[in-house]
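User: quick one, fold this
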Amino acid sequence: MGMKTIQQILGIMVLVGVAFLLYSFGKVRNGDYAEPANTPSVTETPAQSEWVTYQNEQYGFELMHPADWTVHVSEEFEPRINIYKADVSTEPPFIHHSDAVHVSVFPHGVPTEGVFGATGTSTVNFKESVNNASDYLLANGDRWATFVTFQNPPESWEAWGFIWARARIENFKEICMVGSNEVPMDSCPLLDSPQNARIVREGNVNEEERAVEVRIMESFRFIR
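Assistant:
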């Protein structure tokens, strides 16, 4: 390669370099270019717990629940399927009076009285048509539990089969009121005089657990 050719190549390289610098300088002046900032990397928030599908062919339903929740099936007395948070302090099987964070399916109901207390129409969006869907309310309006029966359950269900879900209540207090008077819970005349006595529950619902329970109930559907 001759000296003249080498000089021509070097000249072209210089011109390209100068053109690039001029272009970059113009971008900076126009605000179209900026030096990379030495910003710290963004830490990703932990992904939501993986959800799994539970299917019960005997009673013809399925639902979804977090992978770290447990399913307990019992046929003692009446069939019950408890889906519960693994950190509960009590052991299943649970009924609707159990003090545990759970969503439970009772295809044949439960042979005992219901839960007393203030209720309102449920805000849970069930996939199936319901007969009765009620949310239980604390004094501050928090929805701490849900009771629902369905219009067209499978033949393996009784007409009074239901789902019950309850969340954790923090700073919980339960009061029996007769008229405007508070009476001790152990002498509360709920069964003898339900038209005069009422239960008032105070506290705050654990909203995270309640949201999980609502999602579980909204995933519930019959399979035929």
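User: anything notable?
Assistant: Confidence is low (pLDDT under 50) at residues 2-47.
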